[in-house]
Write a structure and sequence with these properties.
The chain folds into two domains: about 150 residues, 3-Layer(aba) Sandwich (Rossmann fold), CATH 3.40.50; about 60 residues, no CATH class. The protein has eight helices and ten strands. The structure holds adenosine-5'-triphosphate. The site of adenosine-5'-triphosphate has 10 residues, from helix 1.
């Protein structure tokens, strides 16, 4: 579903991604981990069609990017550091706006169910500018999944969420994975990322340094691998 081959991305003369190879099958859940500045967000933004590759090949569902960015976009749901919400509109109005933008049918039903899923039904009529950070994050997740995209891209989605919201997100991710969605998620919570995913990829200085199996791997073994891979590179 997501094919990344020899991806290079530079900002000016600074190469941030230096030949990333990663293939993610349809229905697979991959977690991407790595140190600050490793290039995780850059990689996710290329896949989300928001950045153009400097070199290499990226395709989603067989459509090469950036040529088919427009087509691919409606099959993607993105949760990033930018909420992409309108502060003066209520939570429900925001979701209705996106539902219209995507030309969705059964809008009332979808919006109501999305708000319930993230535990925001009681606050649906309040303007989003009055929301706390965690509430905004919950609504961002509802917006990203509203159009039932084939591919879900999450950049540190647990940031700002309380225990209840984290558990809701766990359920939502498991539900989305069970429905056959392809998921790529960045997180700094190694153990959490490991528990949810089929595979965990470690990005180190712009390259995939290792890929481990997800749920089946013992957290301690994964932490050893992560430390080994990132330290070995640093020692060079
Ligand atoms: P973190 O875990 O801190 O979120 P990350 O792995 O997501 O980090 P990126 O945000 O992809 O890392 O950044 C990788 C490198 O690219 C960093 O050195 C960063 O300063 C640089 N970078 C990111 N965006 C830009 C930009 N728009 N212009 C110039 N440099 C950038």
């Amino acid at each position: 579903m997501i094919k990344i081959d020899g991806l290079v991305k530079s900002y000016g003369h600074l190469p941030v991604l230096r030949g990333v190879d990663l293939h993610i099958e349809a229905g697979e859940f991959v977690t991407l981990v790595g140190a600050n500045g490793a290039g995780k967000t850059t990689l996710l933004r290329v896949v989300a069609t928001l950045l153009r590759p400097t070199a290499g090949k990226v395709s989603i569902g067989g459509w090469p990017l950036p040529t088919h960015a427009e087509k691919v976009r409606r099959h993607i749901g993105l949760v990033s550091h930018h909420a992409l919400l309108y502060g003066d509109l209520s939570a429900a109005e925001n979701l209705h706006f996106f539902a219209r933008l995507f030309g969705l049918d059964r809008r009332e039903e979808r919006v109501e169910s999305a708000l319930k899923q993230v535990g925001l039904a009681a606050r649906q009529r309040d303007p989003v500018r009055t929301f706390s950070r965690g509430m905004t994050q919950r609504l961002t997740i509802a917006r990203a999944t509203l159009h039932e995209p084939d591919v879900l891209l999450f950049d540190e989605p647990y940031t700002g969420l309380d225990q209840e919201a984290s558990a809701l997100l766990d359920d939502l991710l498991r539900h989305q994975a069970a429905q056959g969605r392809t998921i790529l998620m960045i997180t700094h919570d190694l153990v959490h990322g490991l528990n949810l995913a089929d595979r965990v990829a470690i990005l180190d200085r712009g390259k995939i340094a290792a890929v481990a199996t997800g749920r089946e791997m013992e957290p301690a073994a994964f932490l050893r691998l992560y430390t080994d891979v990132t330290r070995r590179k640093r020692d060079r």
